[in-house]
Design brief:
Blueprint lengths: L14 E2 L10 E6 L1 H6 L6 E3 L3 E3 L2 E20 L2 E6 L4 E5 L5 E6 L4 E7 L4 E6 L3 E5 L5 E5 L5 E7 L5 E6 L3 E6 L2 E7 L5 E7 L3 E6 L4 E5 L7 E5 L4 E8 L2 E8 L1 H9 L4 H4 L9 E7 L5 E7 L2 E8 L5 E7 L8 E6 L4 E7 L5 E6 L5 E5 L1 E12 L2 E5 L3 E17 L5 E9 L15 E2 L2 E4 L5 E11 L7 E11 L5 E7 L4 E6 L19 H6 L8 E6 L3 E9 L7 E8 L6 E7 L3 E5 L6 E10 L11 E5 L3 E3 L5 E2 L3 E5 L2 E9 L5 E8 L5 E2 L11 E8 L5 E11 L4 E10 L2
Antiparallel strand pairs: 1-2, 2-38, 3-4, 3-28, 5-6, 5-31, 6-7, 7-8, 9-10, 10-11, 11-12, 13-14, 14-15, 15-16, 17-18, 18-19, 19-20, 21-22, 22-23, 23-24, 25-26, 26-27, 27-28, 29-30, 30-31, 32-37, 33-36, 33-37, 33-38, 34-35, 34-37, 39-42, 40-41, 42-45, 43-44, 43-46, 46-47, 46-48, 49-51, 50-51, ...
Length: 717
């Protein structure tokens, strides 16, 4: 099964910039591709899946009622019949945009409408009732089905009216005063319905998302396709195949819509509602192919135009600025194009009108608009703000595409220091006519936005495939976060990177990027990975540093003793962020270490920047504590051992003793706390057996040096 994507009916991310390099050289912002164009604001332009911004079909608004919410729509007497939720009223909107009240129910929700040309059939609920209304607006109760809802109606065979119901999910036919259940499904709702004289009757499930079919001359309905979604919202038939909109989350969006009473409140995004949708082509054997799909748009309605393209109406949620959109999908080439983006959150109905005209209707904040056969004369596109990450200067801008005679494209830019454009941003630069290759008067800044103005003549449109803008980021100094030392005896060892073996290159592996320019931008040799090893006397100074421009850094390490003012160079041109020495290389004392970071390997000499940071004073102590020979005293059968300890720098951090080579036992100094470089210890030994004994004392200073003292004595009865 092939899979493609509609918008966010699908795309690849496509704001591309050059790979971060070893130098802060010129980079390029490239705006291209279906995804990046849809991420921006195609305010009055169309976007094709193959990555072109063009002028769309002209859209004219027939009717606008921002405080209204509609639940059903159809064509009746060459007028658009819409059912308003709040007033339970049916309005007829003429081709000139004038509206008239046609019929009003009393506090009932109109769930579906259908016209056979002479009468308008209206389903209300709950419980479900179907009314038949003539051209003069006289209504009569036509049928009371055993259901709570009627969700869809269509003309059926032999002039019958087909109805898809909910609670229970069934399909029945109406003809005159006769009704007949054609299909009782196991789903609670049947949401959509389509009849084709050649292929039969199709119904879409509203709980399990199964597409059902009754073939001509068959009595039974069969499951034709299981969408894997919760409902099938729309069905169209074309060229011996059926197209189904399979959706998850549409019902939640519609319930949200019907509970809101103003356009302002209904435009609030609902990120908590999860929606997914797919446009699927299914043949009469059940073989399916996904033509498009989205993770934040719901397909509410579909129809077919004169060219055999599927027109798709969607509603969105979850995005920062969700909008309903109109797409076309060419079934044979599978090309997708976004034709129109509404100010409303959802476009819920499509009407195939007279003379091949198509109308779209928004569900929240009712607006009826007509898709005309001519192109707009002018349209605008705004890119999503692009973050250069560092304050930048901007250079040449170039536009790639096609602009036939009678058309033109203008490009302008603006910049700022905030993520979202506001009054602190610069004004739009002067318009530059495509193909550009000029430097605009764009102010330096961190963020930039591109505006395209497309102009045509209603028959021919220009195409924009890519916009490229050069920029040079400001070189900023490196930053050293901290300098520290590891525990004595721990060394860091650099692990050189493994050499990558070459792989054979196939024809399908070619990249659209310029590999030669990309290779120049690749980072130079940087810090290696490390591992820790134990080495006697090792002393490791390490630091953390970064560069906002991702420049390659080198380091200089200097030191000074606490009694000195001048710094002494220890090592320079280091590329790793550590340096290991042996403490014996320095006399005992307290030392401070200074790290200087330079970005000179990535910048010209006169542009080199640096940063430095000093460590706290670090103890270098290679001399073990001096332990006096322990003295032993005997008194009333008890043994007392006393000794004095002195360290040149101190303090003593650990003291312990052992008898006769057994386990060392912590030793407490006579003053009760280990806190200086000079300590005295007195130990009382009890329950010693008769004979010769060995007493050993071990002390450790702050430099991890160990000092030992030992004495031998004899215990007699």
């Amino acid at each position: 099964m092939k899979k493609r994507t509609i918008t966010t009916l699908i795309f690849l991310s496509c704001v591309i910039f050059t790979v971060q390099g070893k130098a802060e050289s010129t980079r390029f912002f490239n705006l291209e591709g279906f995804g990046a164009f849809l991420d921006g604001d195609p305010e009055s332009t169309a976007v094709s899946e193959d990555g072109a911004i063009t002028l769309p079909l002209n859209i004219s608004t027939l009717y606008d009622a921002p405080d209204s919410v509609i639940s059903a729509a159809t064509l009746f007497r060459d007028k658009i019949a819409i059912a308003q939720v709040d007033q339970s009223e049916i309005l007829l909107v003429a081709q000139n945009g004038k509206s008239e009240s046609f019929y009003k129910f009393t506090d009932k929700l109109i769930t579906a409408m259908h016209s056979d040309g002479k009468h308008l059939y209206v389903a209300i609920g709950t419980p479900a009732e179907i009314y038949k209304i003539d051209k003069q607006g006289k209504a009569q109760l036509y049928h009371k089905p055993d259901a709570n809802f009627v969700w869809a109606m269509d003309s059926g065979p032999n002039n019958a009216i087909l109805c898809a119901s909910g609670d229970p999910g069934s399909l029945f036919s109406l003809k005159g005063e006769q009704s007949k259940i054609l299909f009782a499904s196991e789903e609670r709702h049947l949401r959509s319905l389509k009849y084709d004289a050649k292929l039969g009757i199709f119904a879409g499930g509203g709980e399990k998302g199964i597409l059902y079919r009754q073939a001509p001359k068959d009595k039974d309905f069969r499951a034709l396709f299981d969408s894997g979604h919760t409902e099938v919202t729309s069905i169209v038939v074309q060229d011996d195949v059926v197209y189904a909109a399979s959706v998850t989350g549409a019902d939640a969006l519609l319930k949200e819509q019907k509970t809101k009473r103003s356009a302002k409140s209904s435009d609030i995004a609902s990120p908590s509602i999860s929606v997914r949708s797919q446009l699927v082509r299914v043949d009469m054997y059940g073989a399916s192919e996904i033509l498009a799909g989205s993770n934040d748009e719901v397909i509410f309605a579909m129809t077919v135009n004169k060219q055999g393209h599927i027109i798709v109406a969607t509603g969105a949620t979850g995005r920062e600025d969700p909008r309903g959109r109109i797409y076309t999908v060419e079934p044979k080439t599978r090309r997708i194009a976004m034709l129109y983006q509404s100010d409303a959150k959802r476009i819920t109905h499509l009407i195939h009108g007279p003379r091949g005209m198509h109308y779209g209707i928004t569900g929240n904040g009712t607006s009826i608009f007509k898709l005309q056969s001519t192109l707009r004369k002018e349209g605008y596109f705004y890119s999503e703000p692009f973050d250069t990450q560092i304050h930048s200067r901007f250079g040449h801008i170039e536009v790639f595409g096609l602009w036939p005679s009678g058309t033109k494209v203008l490009v302008a830019t603006r910049s700022g220091q905030s993520k979202i454009p506001d009054t602190t941003w610069s004004n739009w630069s002067d318009d530059i006519r495509a193909p550009g290759k000029e430097v605009s008067n764009l102010h330096p800044g961190r963020y930039l936005q591109v505006r395209l103005t497309l102009s045509g003549n209603e028959k021919v449109s220009p195409e924009v495939h890519r916009v490229r803008l050069a920029y040079l980021r400001q070189n900023l100094p490196p930053f050293i976060r901290k300098v520290s030392s590891l525990q004595k005896g721990i060394a860091l060892v650099a692990i050189p990177p493994m050499e990558k073996k070459g792989l054979p290159l196939g024809l399908g592996d070619k990249s659209s990027k310029d590999k030669s320019s990309e290779s120049k931008a690749l980072p130079g040799k940087g810090p290696n990975k490390t591992r820790r090893v134990n080495r006697n006397g090792a002393m490791t100074i390490k630091w953390e540093a970064e560069d906002p421009n991702a420049d390659q850094l080198t380091y200089k390490l200097s030191f000074r003793k606490s009694s000195q003012k001048e710094w002494t160079l220890m090592k320079e041109n280091l590329i790793d962020s550590f340096h290991t020495i042996y403490s014996s290389q320095l006399p005992d004392g307290h030392y401070q270490f200074r790290i200087e970071a330079h970005d000179g390997k990535s910048n010209p000499k006169d542009k080199t920047l640096k940063d430095s940071r000093d460590s706290r004073f670090i103890l270098v102590d290679n001399t073990p504590p001096k332990v006096d020979k322990p003295s032993v005293k005997f008194s009333k059968g008890r043994v007392s051992v006393h000794t004095n300890v002195l360290d040149g720098l101190g303090p003593i951090t650990t003291a312990e003793y052992a008898i006769d080579g057994q386990t060392f036992i912590p030793l407490v100094p006579d003053d009760g706390i280990l806190d200086s470089n000079e300590e005295a210890f007195t130990t009382q030994l009890d329950d010693l057996r008769e004979g010769v004994h060995v007493f050993t004392i071990r002390v450790i200073d702050e430099g991890h040096n160990q000092g030992f003292g030992e004495t031998q004595f004899t215990v007699n009865d």
